[in-house]
Amino acid sequence: MSNFPIIERAQRFLSVLRHCQVLGMSVHSAEPKGLILRLPYSEQIVGNPETGVIHGGAITTLMDTTCGISTVCVLPEFEICPTLDLRIDYMHPAEPNKDVFGFAECYRVTENIIFTRGYAYQDNPDEPIAHVVGAFMRMGKPTDLQRTSKGVGQ
């Protein structure tokens, strides 16, 4: 996997996450400084049918995934890094009928933990709808059997 560009690694990671496929998430950009994922607006993720506002759980999923996949931006090879801790502060509801973007970066990488931070936004990154910080446990590279059965890291 280390032979692939960062954006391709991010796309491969996202492609094996079934819930993200159902939500229609896609990689908008990926580089060493961070990752942006796109969550398209759809009726399936509406939390309040009267207003059309997106459910907070969809934003949480976007941000957890964005932070988790941002690890491929800083690690030389794919490693299994499950979420240890995630905190999201919602600033205001997402506007109906607009896609949501999630940005995340890894700001500290240790031997055992990767620390991330980011934000969700719609039109303007300077007007975030939510802020996030997360910690991800480094469990190492997947074994050959795990790579073959899950398709991650190939």
From TrEMBL:
Gene3D superfamilies with a match to the protein in the record: Hotdog Thioesterase
Keywords, sorted A to Z: Hydrolase
Molecular function terms, GO-annotated: 1,4-dihydroxy-2-naphthoyl-CoA thioesterase activity
Stretches assigned to the Thioesterase domain: 52-126
Signal sequence extent: none
UniProt GO cellular component terms: cytosol
Stated name of the protein: Uncharacterized domain 1-containing protein
Organism from which the protein derives: Pseudomonas guineae
Phylogenetic placement of the source organism: Bacteria, Pseudomonadati, Pseudomonadota, Gammaproteobacteria, Pseudomonadales
